[in-house]
Backbone:
């Protein structure tokens, strides 16, 4: 039977490293943690949870640390997690084992990240290759990617992640921003780096800079790349926050044609129309609110598409239903508002109950 090793790189992760290792222990044969210079009790906690701990001087290059950890693991297969991730309850060990026994390709796991949005917590999902056969290497100073033989297989296996919560994301941004800036200086036409720089600018709410980098990413060849959909959705929001409403509406119309079955795109366009309605109240009732309504109804028609490369959970169900309820309450349509309020109370299960009128 092939040996499976959990491989984690970590620095100053005493808050969460124990949770990560406890969740993974039943799924793997052994665990390895590569500590890249912790000043807290990360290494002590990892060792107490049964992991073999190695030290590695931080070089400012994530791929180098990943590759060193894989070399030290020296396993047939590697399950790669970050310290702020943990395996969701109810996952089956057999999902991993079946893939290991039947394939030499990488396994894509569903990474479900918690995100603070105002006073609520949303969840975004992205498929990432995390079950890796021996010999795979990572590439990239930051937001590193494993160079698998492909095509990677989607596995029904969920990993939870809380590193994007507000309390944690600021310190990550302080660490990541200089690295991306350095990498961009070395490779200024890399669309993925521009995309990631846009994401980092969103953390600091520098919306003008975020739009600049998303637009540079497209100019540098983001079309057709796996992050293009998420980039369009983010840029729609960033343009609105930057006050560039006309540009946002133009992008929104293009993105809806580009991604007709993306609930994320239609949801973001609905939000944009609502923002425009607030700035143009004379046309709110006859133009912008109906456009927002149509967008969120379309989200419900699309539903929750589990195998999309990335998505925000609920935009095809309860979040769209909530926004529709708000519109109908504003317009005095109490029965319709109540119907969608009831749907919004059932996360990820909402279905359309009315045709648009």
Residues:
């Amino acid at each position: 039977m092939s040996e499976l090793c959990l491989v984690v790189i970590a620095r100053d992760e005493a808050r969460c490293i124990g949770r990560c290792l406890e969740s993974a222990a039943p799924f793997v044969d052994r665990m390895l943690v590569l500590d890249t210079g912790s000043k807290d009790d990360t290494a002590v906690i990892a060792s107490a949870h049964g992991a073999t701990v190695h030290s590695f001087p931080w070089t400012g290059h994530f791929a180098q640390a990943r590759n060193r950890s894989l070399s030290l693991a020296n396993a047939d297969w590697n399950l790669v997690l970050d310290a702020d991730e943990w395996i969701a309850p109810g996952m089956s060990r057999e999902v991993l084992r079946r893939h290991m026994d039947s394939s030499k390709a990488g396994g894509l796991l569903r990474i479900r990240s918690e995100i603070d949005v105002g006073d609520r917590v949303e969840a975004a999902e992205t498929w990432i290759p995390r079950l890796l056969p021996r010999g795979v290497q990572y590439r990239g100073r930051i937001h590193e990617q494993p160079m698998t033989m492909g095509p990677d297989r989607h596995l029904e296996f969920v990993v939870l992640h809380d590193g994007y919560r507000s309390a944690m994301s600021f310190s990550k941004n302080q660490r990541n921003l200089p690295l991306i800036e350095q990498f961009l200086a070395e490779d200024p036409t890399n669309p993925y780096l521009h995309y990631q720089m846009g994401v980092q600018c969103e953390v600091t709410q520098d919306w003008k800079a975020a739009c600049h980098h998303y637009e540079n990413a497209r100019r540098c060849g983001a079309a057709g790349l796996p992050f293009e959909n998420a980039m369009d959705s983010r840029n729609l929001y960033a343009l609105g926050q930057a006050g560039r409403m006309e540009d946002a509406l133009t992008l929104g119309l293009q993105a809806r044609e580009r991604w007709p079955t993306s609930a994320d795109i239609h949801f973001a366009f609905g939000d944009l129309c609502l923002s425009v309605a607030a700035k143009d109240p004379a046309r709110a009732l006859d133009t912008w609110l109906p456009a927002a309504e149509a967008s969120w109804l379309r989200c419900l028609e699309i539903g929750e598409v589990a195998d999309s490369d990335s998505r925000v959970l609920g935009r095809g169900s309860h979040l769209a239903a909530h926004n529709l309820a708000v519109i109908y309450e504003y317009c005095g349509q109490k029965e319709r508002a109540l119907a969608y309020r009831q749907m919004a109370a059932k996360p990820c299960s909402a279905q359309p109950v009315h045709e648009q009128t």
Notes: The chain has a mean pLDDT of 92. The longest strand covers residues 120-133. Residues 166-186 form the longest helix (21 residues).
